[in-house]
Amino acid sequence: MKGIILAGGAGSRLYPMTRVMTKQLQSVYDKPMIYYPLSILMLGGIRDILLITTPDDKPLFEKLLGDGSQFGVRLSYKIQEKPNGLPEAFVLGEDFIGDDSVCLILGDNLFYGDLDFFRKAIVSQTAKENGMSGRVFAYYVADPRAYGVVEFNKETKKVKSIEEKPANPKSNYAIPGLYLFDSTVSQRAKALKPSPRGETEIVDLILSYHNEGKLGVEMMYRGLAWLDTGTPRQLLDAASFIGAIEERQGMKVACLEEVAYRMKFINIAELEKITAQLPKCSYRSYLEKIILEEK
């Protein structure tokens, strides 16, 4: 399984914050936003990751994350000249995907909680269980009209219908920005026609699997938080949520060095070396505490 993070777009809803720096480099409490989706891929065991961003922002991401070796992953970059729709990530990443399955996560989507559902979905996807070549996730929301909505059979986990921002939703289950597809996804994405918005649509790509009976759905159960950060209010809410969790538990969310160590991507000696190079700050102190406890 390979991973793609789509971190492009104009971030116009966050203007003027995004006038000089992309949305995915804005802070969510004590870390850049990009740390959160990257940590999800790492916690899913994915180590070969492509980050797609804009020409102006690519050097900033490279300065922040490098080649990913300090986190025990292989991180590469691709430029999206302008936002032409989410499916373009699979066109730009065609050579990167090759013959492998791929997970796409949007750079402004945050998930917190037990990720066992995600790990199981990755196993199912790579094994192509039940003939499913594509998988979406279902998250219960009070008002799903602002999202893509999935209706599905809870026993077979097969999708009945998918609608984009329906006026009368058939279910309360929204599709968050996390998708699993097989290696045919690039060819499918190339075949899509732009919508009236002038972009290709992720719903049309998902439907290409559904229409062939090859789309499955995985439940995100209660206790898992899914946070979007597209507006100033959503960004504030996400920061407040992360801050409350970290202050209450004394453990950081999406600390990439810790995730790399817990996932055994790096060892304790490598963690010590990385930590020693950090400036004096609470982030370094947290990693020093982990090292002390482990030793």
UniProtKB/TrEMBL annotation:
Which prosthetic group or cofactor does it need? Answer: Mg(2+)
Q: What class of enzyme is it?
A: transferase
Keyword Cell inner membrane listed? The answer is no
| Taxonomy, superkingdom | Bacteria
What are the UniProt keywords, alphabetically? Answer: Magnesium, Metal-binding, Nucleotidyltransferase, Transferase
Q: Which reaction does it catalyse?
A: dTTP + alpha-D-glucose 1-phosphate + H(+) = dTDP-alpha-D-glucose + diphosphate
One Pfam family from the UniProt entry? NTP_transferase
Q: Gene3D superfamilies recorded for this chain?
A: Spore Coat Polysaccharide Biosynthesis Protein SpsA, Chain A
EC number(s): the record gives 2.7.7.24
* Nucleotidyl transferase domain mapped to chain residues: 2-242
The record's GO molecular-function terms, alphabetically, read: glucose-1-phosphate thymidylyltransferase activity; metal ion binding
Q: Which family does it belong to?
A: Belongs to the glucose-1-phosphate thymidylyltransferase family.
- Explain the purpose of this protein: Catalyzes the formation of dTDP-glucose, from dTTP and glucose 1-phosphate, as well as its pyrophosphorolysis.
Which protein is depicted? Glucose-1-phosphate thymidylyltransferase
Give the organism's phylogenetic lineage. Answer: Bacteria, Pseudomonadati, Bdellovibrionota, Bdellovibrionia, Bdellovibrionales
